[in-house]
C-alpha cells in the first residue's frame, strides 16, 4: 500500500494560482479541489471560479470533490481531464439520483470515480458504496469546516474500512479533513489517499514539509509491507 498525498486547494483570494505554482514545483502526483454545485461555503470553489482556465494551471491530475447543493440533477460540464478523479459528495437521500449522473460524467472524460462519506455512515453502507467506485473518501470534519482538527472517530472507522472493505473490494480508502502532524503517521497505516491542507501550506518551509511527509509515508508503507519497499 502506497499513500498518495493530495494537497488541498481552497477558495481564497489569490490562493488558487499560488497553490498551482507551489504544487507544480513540488511535483505533486495529484491535488484535491472542492467544488460546490449550486451554492457553496466560503472555502469551497464553484464552477464560476474553477473552470478550464484554472484547471490548466495545474500540471498534476486533480481529484475534484463535488458537493451537491442543488435539487436539479443536471450535472454541469466539469473541467475534467483523463486521469483526473471525480469524487461525489451528496447527501444520502440524493445518492440514487445524483451518483449515476456524476459517474457518467467521469466515464465520459476518462476519469476515475470516487464517493465521499462522513463518519455517520455505517461500515455496512460504506461497503455497499465502495462497490460503486474506485475510491471511498472519508470526510472527518463538517462540510465547510476547513481548519478543524481530526475527528478521533475517523481512526477506528478507517481501520475497520481497511479490514472489511479494502481487503475484499478493489477500492482505495482516503481521508479528507483534519490531518495534522500528530495524526499523519497513524493515518498512513490505513489509507491510500490523504488530503492535506494546512499541514502543508501552513508550514514555515513548504518544500521541506512536503519532503518530510513523503519520507514519513514511505517509512510507514515499508513497515506495513513487512519491511519491503
Strand order of the largest sheet: 1-2-4-5-6-7-8-9
Going by CATH, the architecture would be Alpha-Beta Barrel
Strand percentage lies at 15-25%
Structural class by secondary-structure content: alpha/beta
Oligomer: single chain
How would you describe the shape?
A: globular
With helices defined by DSSP (H or I, 4 residues minimum), what is the helix count? 8
Describe this structure in words.
The protein has an eight-stranded parallel beta barrel with strand order 1-2-4-5-6-7-8-9, surrounded by four helices. It has a single domain, classed as Aldolase class I (TIM Barrel, Alpha-Beta Barrel), CATH 3.20.20.70. It is built from eight helices and nine strands. The radius of gyration is 17 Å and the shape is globular. The longest helix is centred in the C-terminal third of the chain and has 19 residues. 36% of the residues lie in helices and 23% in strands. With 229 residues, the protein is an alpha/beta fold. Helix 4 packs across helix 5.
Question: In terms of topology, how is this protein built?
Answer:
Layout: E1 4-9, H1 15-26, E2 30-38, E3 45-46, H2 52-55, E4 61-69, E5 85-89, H3 95-108, E6 112-118, H4 123-130, E7 135-139, H5 154-166, E8 172-176, H6 181-188, E9 193-196, H7 198-201, H8 206-224
Parallel strand pairs: 1-2, 1-9, 2-3, 2-4, 4-5, 5-6, 6-7, 7-8, 8-9
Helix pairs in contact: 4-5
Amino acid at each position: 500500500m502506497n499513500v498518495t498525498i493530495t494537497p488541498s486547494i481552497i477558495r481564497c483570494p489569490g490562493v488558487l494560482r499560488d497553490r498551482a505554482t507551489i504544487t507544480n514545483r513540488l511535483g505533486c502526483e495529484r491535488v484535491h479541489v472542492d467544488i460546490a454545485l449550486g451554492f457553496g461555503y466560503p472555502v469551497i470553489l464553484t464552477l464560476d471560479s474553477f473552470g478550464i482556465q484554472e484547471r490548466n494551471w495545474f500540471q498534476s491530475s486533480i481529484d475534484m470533490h463535488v458537493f451537491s447543493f442543488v435539487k436539479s440533477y443536471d450535472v454541469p460540464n466539469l473541467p475534467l481531464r483523463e486521469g483526473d478523479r471525480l469524487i461525489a459528495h451528496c447527501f444520502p437521500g440524493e445518492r440514487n439520483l445524483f451518483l449515476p449522473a456524476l459517474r457518467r460524467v467521469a466515464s465520459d472524460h476518462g476519469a476515475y470515480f470516487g464517493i465521499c462519506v462522513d463518519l455517520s455512515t455505517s461500515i455496512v453502507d460504506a461497503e455497499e458504496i465502495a462497490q460503486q467506485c474506485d475510491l471511498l473518501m472519508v470526510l472527518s470534519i463538517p462540510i465547510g469546516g476547513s481548519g478543524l482538527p481530526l475527528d478521533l472517530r475517523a481512526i477506528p472507522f478507517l481501520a475497520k474500512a481497511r479490514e472489511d472493505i479494502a481487503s475484499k473490494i478493489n477500492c482505495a480508502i482516503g481521508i479528507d479533513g483534519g490531518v495534522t502532524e500528530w495524526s499523519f503517521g497513524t493515518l498512513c497505516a490505513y489509507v491510500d489517499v490523504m488530503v492535506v491542507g494546512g499541514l502543508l501550506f501552513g508550514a514555515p518551509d513548504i518544500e521541506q514539509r512536503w519532503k518530510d511527509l513523503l519520507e514519513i509515508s514511505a517509512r510507514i508503507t515499508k513497515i506495513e509491507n513487512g519491511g519491503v519497499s
